[in-house]
Amino acid sequence: MIPIKSPEGLGIMRRAGEILSRVMRQAALAVRPQAITSEIDRLVESLIRKYGALPAFKGYRGFPASACISVNEEIVHGIPGPRVLLKGDIVSLDIGVNYQGYFSDAAITVGVGEIEPQKERLIEACRRALDVGIKKAYPGNHLTDISHSIQVFVEAQGFSVVRQFVGHGIGTALHEDPEVPNFGEAHLGPVLKSGMVLAIEPMINLGGWESEITANGWTAVTKDGLASAHFEHTVAITKQGPKILSK
């Protein structure tokens, strides 16, 4: 069963998204050469709490930080620590907030200083893939219309779509039904209805789509060691079309 949010619930989620957007913008500005990932994480937590929310990720299933900070070949669930960011790295920031019992989730990938052209292309393709997927989030469409549109776009750019990790429903829990893959055939799965809220999040790789989990039990990396990018928004399905709550 995919939860349908009330107008009141959607209003709280919109506020959660506004807080998350402010945090994300400030965190992205902290991504620069010689920045330490643990310091970015501390900034994220302090900002979330300053704006009256709680960090959604900290302690979730044992995750030790407020932000997932994934660098270069790390796809998702990077754990902040003593790592120093270097010019030419690309960094994915994945952040969630809990505001009055409702959640918002978003991700962005940014370069550290000047980056290689192929990494710039990867980031831009992932950002555009998210836009492509969101445009399919209309009542009456099937869930996999989102999935299929993302895969077709990404592969046409010469990149691959991660299979092991997918988007999800979101609301009074960080992860709700349904799963939202970034690949697959169109016109399958549940029919989208007004009041549903989805965290749509393409994760795409410069090389192959295969991934593996590192020894810390959390961080996913590309199997071939090539770079990965990740973008995400919390999106409400409405009669007027998709509404980005985390923008």
Question: What topology does this entry show?
Answer:
Elements (H helix, E strand, L loop, with lengths): L6 H23 L7 H14 L3 E2 L11 E5 L2 E3 L13 E10 L2 E10 L5 H18 L8 H14 L3 E2 L5 E3 L6 E5 L16 E4 L2 E3 L5 E3 L6 E3 L5 E3 L2 E6 L2 E4 L3
Antiparallel strand pairs: 1-4, 2-4, 3-12, 4-5, 6-10, 7-8, 7-9, 9-14, 10-13, 11-12, 14-15
Helix pairs in contact: 1-2, 3-4
Walk me through the structure.
The protein is of the alpha+beta class and 247 residues long. It has one domain: Creatine Amidinohydrolase (Alpha-Beta Complex), CATH 3.90.230.10. Helix content is 28%, strand content 27%. The strands form 4 sheets. The protein has a 5-stranded antiparallel beta sheet with strand order 8-7-9-14-15. Strands 1, 2, 4 and 5 form a 4-stranded antiparallel beta sheet that branches. The protein is globular.
The gist of it:
The chain has helices at 7-29, 37-50, 117-134, 143-156; strands at 54-55, 67-71, 74-76, 90-99, 102-111, 160-161, 167-169, 176-180, 197-200, 203-205, 211-213, 220-222, 228-230, 233-238, 241-244. It is α+β, with helices and mostly antiparallel strands and 247 residues long.
Attribute tags:
single chain; 247 residues; alpha+beta; Creatine Amidinohydrolase; five-stranded antiparallel sheet; four-stranded antiparallel sheet; 15 strands; 28% helix; globular
Count of individual helical segments: 4
**CATH topology, which one?**
Creatine Amidinohydrolase
| Unreliable segments of 5+ consecutive residues | none
What is the helix/strand order?
HHEEEEEHHEEEEEEEEEE
* The CATH superfamily title: Creatinase/methionine aminopeptidase superfamily
Q: In percent, how helical is the residue content?
A: 25-40%
